[in-house]
Amino acid sequence: MTDIPGLPSRRSFLKGSAAGVALTGLALSAAEAEAAPPVPLDQYEREYLTADEWAFVMAATARLIPSDGDGPGAIEARVPVFIDRQLAGDYGRADDWYMEGPHDASAAPARGWQTPLSPAEVYRQGIPAFDAWCETTYGAAFAALDADRQDEALAALQKGEPGLDPELRDFFTILLANTKEGYFADPLYGGNHGMQAWVYIGFPGARAAYREWPERHNIEYPLGPVSISGERA
Amino acid sequence: MARQEQKKDVVIVGLGWTGSIAGIELAREGLDIVALERGHDQATVPDFKYPNQIDELKYGVRLKMMQKPSQQTLTVRRNGGETALPYRSLGSFLPGNGVGGAGTHWNGLNWRPQPEEMKLRSYVTETWGEEIIPEGMNLGDYPVSYDELEPYFTHFEKVAGISGKAGNVNGEIREGGNPFEGWRSEDYPMPQQKRTWDSQKFHDACTAAGYHPFQAPAGIASTAYVNPYGMQMGPCNYCGFCERYGCYQYSKSSPQTAILDALKRMPNFEYRTQSEVLRVELAEDGKTATGVTYWDEAAQEEVFQPADIVILSSFSLNNVHLMLLSGLGEAYDPLTGTGTLGKNYAYQMNGGVTMFFEDDHFNPFVGHGANGVCIDDFSVNQNDFGALGFIGGSYWRSGTFNGQPIRNMPLPKGTPSWGAGWKDGIGKWYGHAMSIGSHGSHMSYANNHLDLDPTYTDRHGRPMMRMTFNWQDNDLRMNQYQKSRMEPLAQSMNPDLMQSSFKDIGAQYDVRPYQTTHNTGGHIMSETASEGAVNRYCQTWKAHNVFAMGAGNFVQNTQYNPTGLVGGLAYWTVNAIRTQYLSNPRPLV
Hints:
The complex is a heterodimer of chains A (233) and B (589). Chain A is mainly alpha-helical and 233 residues long. Chain A has helices at 10-16, 18-23, 30-34, 51-64, 79-88, 90-93, 119-138, 147-159, 171-184, 196-201. Chain A has one domain (10-100, 111-201). Chain A is built from ten helices and no strands. The radius of gyration of chain A is 19 Å and the shape is globular. By secondary structure, chain B is an alpha/beta fold. Chain B is 24% helix and 20% strand. Chain B has helices at residues 17-27, 44-47, 56-61, 102-105, 115-118, 120-127, 146-160, 197-208, 255-264, 316-326, 385-388, 419-429, 473-492, 563-581; strands spanning 3-4, 8-13, 33-36, 74-77, 85-86, 168-169, 172-173, 214-215, 225-226, 232-233, 269-272, 275-282, 289-296, 301-312, 343-346, 349-356, 373-375, 394-398, 433-440, 449-457, 463-468, 497-502, 520-522, 546-548. In chain B, the strands form six sheets. In chain B, strands 1, 2, 3, 11, 12, 13, 14 and 24 form an eight-stranded mixed sheet that branches. In chain B, helix 1 (17-27) packs parallel to helix 9. Classes of the chains: A mainly alpha (233), B alpha/beta (589). The interface between A and B is large, with 64 and 66 residues.
């Protein structure tokens, strides 16, 4: 089956579905298996991202944290859901930030966030700008490229090679940061599905009670994570 | 026309550590007090309860306990030639918000300064001569000595509930404590904390090297404890959620755990939240304040609160901003050296080494904000400034303080920041790294100062404060010296890999990565009115019924976390108000 440009790839579809979870070999705890499975990613009702933006976020996060090898990838962790919800909320709108002008988006990076755009607006303008660069450079939008080309394009974006407008300069920085946030945040926010990212590295999540552990020197902590809502893995 | 509230004896601006201290001590004198707090109300229950507080995204990353720049921020430039730009999203430092202030979300590291740091200019000139003071450095003495403050440090440690082991009790050096600390009239109120695996390794390496390791003084309860106000603390369970969080189990020292519930019971004390003070109002002769005007967020109107005494106890930067806006002194001009407000803004010079041990399990999530073993062997009073070519020093510490994986994921240099290599790296190295931090002094300089911004305004239309700040060679040389001493020690521990992160000479200030919220100076203490904004009792030179609390009083920053000095100075100031000022209100100097 060939992936169709502009649509979620077969690979993404399988990863996002319950079948995908089984195929990639993630263990489900008894409690989790009894719970209703999450909405497959291709049926997820987006809160902020458009269909094209969703396709980009699915494709980009799948390369930033790939599914190959040990541990979940961004797709199994449902990072795109996390990003969509974050962009729809106060973070995406920059509610807590000072956004009044005048703005000097060309200021040195060390001067901090100086674009007039909120994070959600940076995604909205950054995705088509980067896709246009991918079209020019590789002949197709990012989501339609093969994995090696996608890696190459993301590496170029990280180095600033596509020459996006200064207002969009931090696009890669927040895309990567939001991807890692969605991987490691409490599942409450839509990512880190099944706490598998915590299981992978050995972080116990919201256990937050280790009174007998400070002086158990050089012994690996044995318990798996719990989440704020009480899930166990 | 502003609404006017009933007059109070005392109005307190900001209900963090120092506002709470002023509140309870002056309420005990029978004074009628109101505290105005810009932010929201918050208490251990229900605001910090488990498990909701154990949320790295909400508090650690989205910073929901912190000041919102949309509500209040400042502009930053590195030097006078640059145009200052707003600090639009928080990065380098994180002022708190709401009841408890930064005392709610701190790490709990509670230090006293070394006696030499309180009289640093005299110490330097008497030991090496004035000629070693670099051009542009505003090196000063505090107009109060360690010996004078000692009882107040001791009292603050009892109130805050500090765990530790004394190294110097009335001049007698005690094994296992810090031999280079100033004298203490008594030991810490609680025994020292436990030692995690990383701090044990560091301890053993320091001992082998002939250094003098000791457990970090921690505002983290090691036992059950009742403080002088009857407030109770329970022993810490090493949950690893201190910095940026409220403590869910009454173990971390904070205004909530140490003072506020006792204070709230007093009928002559009230506090109003969502009440942001806009300016201090001065009498026509300009020699006293008549009260403060604040913005009542709920009523959406300005309110005048008359009072006989005004206590400025907001975060250091906000205190300076209020004083600049209110004319409580002249703005400092770095070119002429005239004026005092905004002078001697200082920060902290930090660095560290990270070591990777493939076969060791550090369980980085088991810890607390003030966990760890320290040494003071390269601190201010141990360094030969004349020979080393800088003025300053640092303390070192190693101990797990959080294992929260979004922000705390040390990886060997060369590990890709994303993709398969990153994913392999986190699987391989999480839990197998430890670090040693160098927490260093920061001197004051003409370049580094605070004034009002000519362009940007806040939501009330007031000019924002402008910070002019960059790293200076003296402190960078100090940092490089610490690196040169720390790397061999780290090497002696035989890590599989190690890497350093110390700013190099020429480093430029970057507002993006978190560095520290130890923003000091700006309304400094001084012997005379021409040198600083407040006198030795933290009473403003301009208006004798206005007292300014907090780290804004620091002449230059010490090598330590500021809370111990902030708390000691607060009790010193309140004692002067109680014993000298109330019976005869006047300039105390």
